[in-house]
């Protein structure tokens, strides 16, 4: 049975002048990616708890909708905002 040692840097060029990554580099990268995913999961859980804490005092569904709208509006230029309002008014009458 053959065993392979991939911990050595192999100098096979790939995509330009890069070489294959070492096992240690891959382990480091995977560790950091997994840590970020864990942090994101914890933040999502905290956000859910926050909404739960405020659901009796505030219409959370309306708040989330308003937040989405505010984020979309923030991306619009001033002229686009007026046109968006006009389009939204027409659509609102039809829906």
Report Rg.
25 Å
Please tell me the overall pLDDT. 87
SS strand fraction: under 5%
Element pattern in H and E: HHH
Overall structural domain count? 2
Please bin the fraction of helical residues: 55-70%
Helical region count?
3
Question: Concise description?
Answer:
With 95 residues, the chain is mainly α.
Detailed description of the structure:
This protein is an all-alpha fold and 95 residues long. It has 2 domains: 1-58; 59-95, no CATH class. 67% of the residues lie in helices and 0% in strands. The chain contains 3 helices and no strands. The chain has helices at residues 23-54, 60-74, 78-94. It is flat and about 60 Å long. The termini are far apart. 0% of the residues are buried. The mean pLDDT is 87.
Keywords:
mainly alpha; 95 residues; 2 domains; flat; 3 helices
Explain the layout of strands and helices.
Elements: H1 23-54, H2 60-74, H3 78-94
């Amino acid at each position: 049975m053959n065993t392979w040692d991939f911990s050595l840097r192999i100098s096979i060029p790939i995509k330009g002048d890069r070489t294959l990554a070492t096992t240690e580099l891959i382990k480091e990268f995977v560790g950091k990616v997994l840590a970020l995913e864990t942090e994101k999961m914890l933040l999502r859980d905290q956000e859910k708890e926050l909404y739960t804490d405020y659901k009796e005092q505030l219409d959370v569904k309306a708040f989330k909708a308003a937040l989405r709208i505010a984020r979309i509006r923030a991306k619009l230029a001033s002229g686009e905002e007026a046109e968006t309002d006009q389009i939204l008014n027409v659509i609102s009458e039809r829906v």
